[in-house]
Amino acid sequence: MAQYGFYFDSDKCTGCKTCQVACKETYGLPTDTLWRKVPNYQGGSWKLDEATGIYEAQNVFGYFVSMACNHCAAPACVAVCPVAALEKNGETGIVSLDERLCIGCGSCETACPYSAPSLWEAKGIFTKCDMCSALVAEGDVPVCVSGCLMRALDFGELTELQGKYGTGDVEVEPLPADSTGPSLVLKPHRNAQKSGAGTGETVSLLEEI
To answer: For residues 183, 85, 20 and 94, what is the CA-based torsion angle, rounded to 10 degrees?
Structure first.
């Protein structure tokens, strides 16, 4: 079985959210439904130098992480869905959600450590990234990847991405510790902090994510 995955270089990401916008426009998602999110993780403080009247940075840092469904090796969403609306494809490893079966219970969102499923309130169901499976079947790449201005995103078979970029590290703030085997090769930002040990916080407003 091939396992498709994403590559993300946090050092290249400027937080422009073109990847997110491309996804929302392509699939006609409402404002509060996000299949790809770009949280901004920041930390540090500013101290006033009384002699000069100038504020000086105290370990200030900040970076972005572009994140969609990670199509995990052991997807928690699939395991908990009471109506089998979620399925991991045996040939591509893509985790898809059948909207015709979804009852909107939210079990998938609760179970997913990355909160990838997103409520489509008007439809009363949860939806999620399917890695643009229709485009991938035609030999194309997901729209978030083609839309990335800084080429911080890439797509392909996971083993090929690892061969090209290395294994990376998915355990960086604001992401959780790895518990599901995400199909993601993440090159951490130079100032990235480890999951669970970070000193910063996610500062993105909901409308900015």
So the answer is: 30
